[in-house]
Amino acid sequence: MNMMTSAAAMTAASIPLAREFGKKDGNGGGATLDQRLASALEEVKGFATEFKTKSEAGEKISTETKEKADKALVDLAGIRAEVTELAQKFDARRPNDEEHGYKSIGQQVGESPELKSFADNGASGTVTLSVKAVTSATGSGAALIAPDRQAGIVGMPQRKLRIRDLLTPGRTTSNSIEYARQITRTNSAAPVAEGALKPESNYAWEVANAPVRTIAHWVPASRQAMDDIPQLESLIDGDLRYGLDDAEDLQLLLGDGQGQNVYGLYPQATPYSAPITIAGATRIDQLRLAILQVELADYDPDGIVLHPAAWTGIELTKDAAGGYIFANPQGIAGPTLWGRPVVPTKGIGTANFLVGAFKLAAQIFDRMETEVRISDQDRDNFIRNMLTIRAEKRLAMAVKRAAAMVRGTLL
């Protein structure tokens, strides 16, 4: 009787479980576990051969021989239980193996259906156990060693988008927004004597038009990548939507109205002209004068748009004693200047500012909210197993009261 194993299992001396198999213990009089297993198998096979020979010859098997055979089978079962217990202890130190479907040599031997069947059938014949050796050598067991894959995908940073939140929202089902805008208002109302001519006031309007513009972009992606990386589709979807919103933010603020550009807030705002003269004026003074300019146009400003660097410079302004004038390093309140919220955005540029009553000044009209579509019907996508992912949105912005905004260059 012999027990055959693959060479890989017999030479796995570097595996902790293999070392455990080779350790001596008190149960076998100094024999190692693998030696005890081989001896027990040999003994059981001897009894099986003896039983077969006597049965064929018609001889009676003694009670003593039967008792010895039963004891040998019990010992074999005990050794097999030890192997299984050892395998479980070893695998308890490797929690990720079960997750990835990997089993140690001991677990493979202990749970082998061939070994169980061999023992249950009286250890008759020869059993062959095939086990896989686990090694970290380059190219020798790559499929068995799982990388520590971190969940999620690390994306690039996204700046905060602010301009849309300043404006009044709206919707449209047309391709353009047409509205009447007052351009003249001469108020001649005055007390009048009985029978005298009443004064004439002058009001004039013009028809203005804000066309709906489309903002769009697309990216290619392989079908395999989309199938194999669950987070990829949501990442692409999120990045495409952010890309549209980023372009929209710049269009709403700086679009020149030419071609397919939106006509933005900054180009249409009233140029800054200090209503009063302040000696030694600073940027802080200048922004207060811009607020005054809007107020003199009979609007109440509800925001200030600045570059983050410009706002930081204002926050760090100190008095003669070195104390901060506007900032509180320990505070958590949002940026505010002269009682108006400050909206920091890099789009406006480091040297520019925009002050206005934005809710009254302009309104956004969404024609089509962001839409993302995936298709393989683009060029040779079908035969290349590629996908085209497209995102687009359509909107118009109507600046109805340009005098409610003041733009300028910082001192």
Q: What is the CATH architecture descriptor of the largest domain?
A: 2-Layer Sandwich
Give the domain tally.
2
Helical fraction: 25-40%
Radius of gyration: 42 Å
Quaternary form: single chain
Spatial gap, N to C terminus = 98 Å
In the CATH scheme, what's the topology name of the largest domain? Major capsid protein gp5 fold
What does this structure look like?
With 411 residues, this protein is α/β, with parallel strands linked by helices. It folds into 2 domains: 3-141, no CATH class; 163-186 and 202-409, Major capsid protein gp5 (Major capsid protein gp5 fold), CATH 3.30.2400.10. 38% of the residues lie in helices and 21% in strands. It is built from 15 helices and 13 strands. Helix 2 (16-22) packs antiparallel against helix 4.
Brief write-up:
With 411 residues, the chain is α/β, with parallel strands linked by helices. It has 2 domains: 3-141, no CATH class; 163-186 and 202-409, 2-Layer Sandwich (Major capsid protein gp5 fold), CATH 3.30.2400.10.
